[in-house]
Automatic annotation (TrEMBL):
This is tRNA (cytosine(38)-C(5))-methyltransferase. InterPro entries: C5-MTase, C5_MeTfrase, C5_meth_CS, SAM-dependent_MTases_sf. It comes from the Eukaryota. One of its GO terms (molecular function) is methyltransferase activity.
């Protein structure tokens, strides 16, 4: 199939709020999303608001090989549930019911008459050591895919966020010699337009009321020592999870709005004077590469719901580079 003369037909599995769709747009690939599939009704509503009615509420475990063949797609993108593999979860792996949909896809893939030419998979760091990942490698190899995998963080694109994620890339072209080192030398070599590591201030909102985002006294005094505190001038922040603003430890950073130089000293003297606040959903969306045109307030979706939806999504900038490499790189050796 000649890229540039024909659309890549895409099946978005676990499509969520459309991070993969935005990544496809940013990758400059000619594509058509044939169908986006997710089991979360709110995510589907948001997806359809921003992209038109492509998202469907479908239980992936109900799709068989014949159903998947009917889509006639060249590329499958997927970000399966990460909860069975997260470091703060129970790490039940294949025993976790949330793994069943992905394991079902792996079971059906060898039965397809026309499997996709390309597959991109995203999950949390640590997934690579799971039994599910082992099954993934075995099935893709058996079906004839040329498969590579690696860990990537947005900081490799000079984005100030440590959202480390595992990525698996598969293609049917077995003649291509490729690896993640090559991706870093080509697709990631220019970073963020060679501007150097950006600071958080480049992503913050300036013209909105932020009073409702400040941390409550009770939380500060009870759990304050567990907080990851950053400044607008910081060049990193922790990964934002679906539990942001609900859980304290390991769910994402909070930002200092006072001008105190030494956070640790001032925290011990008068922690409330640091004026700590949560990041807004728009700020997190920016850090994760979603464009300003991405809408949710028009649908009346709350910040709490957006934190959950964004926490389950992907970094658009990272995935767009991986998709460009996956679909455009045909250099051997």
């Amino acid at each position: 199939m000649e890229k540039g003369t024909q659309f890549i037909r895409v099946l978005e599995l676990y499509s969520g709020i459309g991070g993969m769709h935005y990544a496809l747009k940013a990758s400059n690939i000619s594509f058509e999303v044939v169908c986006a599939i997710d089991i979360n009704p709110l995510a589907n509503t948001l997806y359809n608001h921003n992209f038109g009615n492509r998202a469907k509420h479908i239980d992936i475990t109900k799709l068989d090989a014949a159903d998947l063949d009917e889509y006639k797609c060249d590329l499958w993108t997927m970000s399966p549930s990460c909860q069975p593999f997260t470091r703060i979860g129970k790490q039940q792996d294949v025993q976790d019911p949330r793994s069943h949909a992905f394991l079902h896809l792996l079971n059906e893939l060898p039965k397809l008459s026309s499997p996709p030419e390309y597959i991109l998979i995203e999950n949390v760091q640590g997934f690579e050591h799971s039994l599910t990942a082992h099954s993934c490698r075995e099935v893709l190899k058996r079906v004839g895919y040329n498969f590579i995998e690696g860990i990537v963080t947005p900081k490799e694109l000079n984005i100030p966020n440590s959202r480390c994620r595992w990525y698996g890339l598969a293609r049917k072209d077995s003649s291509v010699s490729w690896n993640f080192d090559d991706i870093r030398k080509t697709s990631f070599k220019d970073g963020y337009k060679n501007e150097g590591l950006k600071c958080l201030n480049d992503f913050l909102e300036n013209q909105v009321s932020l009073e409702s985002y400040f941390l409550a006294d009770k939380l500060m005094f009870r759990y304050g020592h567990q907080l990851d505190i950053v400044k607008p001038t910081s060049t990193n922040c922790c990964c934002f999870t679906r539990g942001y603003a609900q859980l304290v430890q390991g769910s994402g950073s909070v930002i200092q709005t006072s001008d105190h130089e030494n956070i640790a000293d001032q925290f011990e003297k008068d922690r409330m004077s640091l004026r700590l606040r949560y990041f807004t959903a728009r700020e997190i969306a920016r850090i994760m590469g979603f464009p300003e045109s991405f809408q949710w307030k028009e649908l009346g979706i709350s910040e709490k719901s957006m934190y959950r939806l964004l926490g389950n999504s992907i970094n658009v900038n990272v995935v767009s580079r991986l998709l460009s490499y996956l679909l455009n790189n045909h250099t051997s050796g």
